[in-house]
Amino acid sequence: MSVTQQAAPAVTTPPASGPRQTDGRTARRPLALRLLARPEVGVFLGAVAVYVFFLVSAPPVRDGSSMANILYQSSTIGIMALPVALLMIGGEFDLSAGVAVITSALTASMLAYQLSMNVWVGVIVALIVSLAVGFFNGWVMVRTGLPSFLVTLGTFLILQGVNLAVTKLITGNVATDDISSMDGFEQARKVFASSFEVGGVQVKITVVWWLVFAALATWVLLRTKYGNWIFAVGGNKESARAVGVPVTFTKISLFMLVGFGAWFVGMHQLFTFNTVQSGEGVGQELIYIAAAVIGGCLLTGGHGSAIGPVFGAFMFGMVQQGIVYAGWNPDWFKAFLGVMLLGATLINLWVSRTATRR
Q: Residue 253: its pLDDT value, please?
């Protein structure tokens, strides 16, 4: 006789009620810390604080025309700060960005005036020259392995000397001739330096271009494969190359984007003032880099956003014009600039540690 034994059903112990147990690796950080870890949140709060400060201490800031002027000053910095920020996220610097703006404007002005051509010919040639300068910077850096700091410092000195020497050689002066009466000038001015009215206030077209470029840069960073490449080469280019990221193409194209920004701002300056001073632009590269750093871009690369430099540029415009509207000595602007840069660097250091903390 066989005896069949049945296994007793397993007893399932219901999970204990109460808070879920987690270890340090799976615990979620508070929402406030996660928000502050975003590169653009800190500079946004700083921009609000600067705006409120000057709103209280400088009553003219409350006027619509004053705010339009502040936005205009911010846009001329912000348009260049955007490609500089993308380059920094990619792990590189461009110290020639300031004088490259003047090189672009000088090329368009002298080519059109000296050869009596339509100004659009000068504009197109200036774009080619600006892209070529960016390509040169990126190509030399990639082929030689030299730090971008040294490569672009050399380009900065070359362009600074060429700007002054060629202008004197061709025009006999340190400035270009007035091109306001030449063919195509009015059409080009509408694109690069026109104004439009909003609520009785004149707003410069550069403000619109600034916001359009910022939206486009944000989309590229967050929604495209190229944006992933930028973060990858900035974080670790060898690891990026190992997984198939075209490091050489990405680096060179980022320098060319800076060249495009220099061309656009150079055209704005040319068609705003009709002439260009060949010795200008020196020191502006530090303003562009500082706006990107204040906007949350780490000096080590691999971290940042396109929105942060928008607020960084706004802080520059706000401080620069706010000091004037408050009736203070404008020499204090550099002091404010240094404080903002140092503060932003410390905040970015804390943000980077917070973002990587588990």
A: 96
- 328 exposure class (CB count in 10 Å sphere: 0-12, 13-18, 19+): middle
CA distance 61 to 70: 9
Confirm if 164 and 174 have CB atoms less than 8 A apart. Answer: yes
Give the DSSP letter of residue 306: S
CB 303 within 8 A of CB 293: no
Count of other CB atoms within 10 angstroms of residue 248: 16
What one-character-per-residue DSSP string does 88-111 give? HHTT---TTHHHHHHHHHHHHHHH
Q: What is the pLDDT of residue 153?
A: 95
Query: Of 132, 161, 123, whose CA–CA distance to 269 is shortest?
Result: 123
pLDDT of residue 138: 96
**What are the Cα distances from residue 81, in Å, to 26, 85, 87, 171, 306?**
37, 6, 10, 31, 9
Contacts of 56 (CB under 8 A, 6+ apart): none
What's the pLDDT at 134? 96
CA gap 69, 316 in Å, rounded: 12
Q: Give the contacts of 183 (CB within 8 A, at least 6 positions apart).
A: 118, 119
Q: Is the dihedral of CA 343, 345, 348, 353 positive or negative?
A: negative
How many other C-beta atoms can be found within 10 angstroms of the C-beta atom of residue 266? 29
| Residues of the chain below pLDDT 70 | 1-39, 344-345, 347-349, 351-358
Q: What is the pLDDT of residue 32?
A: 56
What are the backbone dihedrals phi and psi of residue 195, each rounded to the nearest 5 degrees, phi first?
-135, 160
Within a 13 Å sphere around the CA of 316, how many CA atoms are in the beta-carbon half? Answer: 30
Write the CB contacts of 23 (distance below 8 Å, at least 6 apart in sequence).
none
Name the pTM for this structure: 0.86
What per-residue confidence (pLDDT) applies to 294?
85
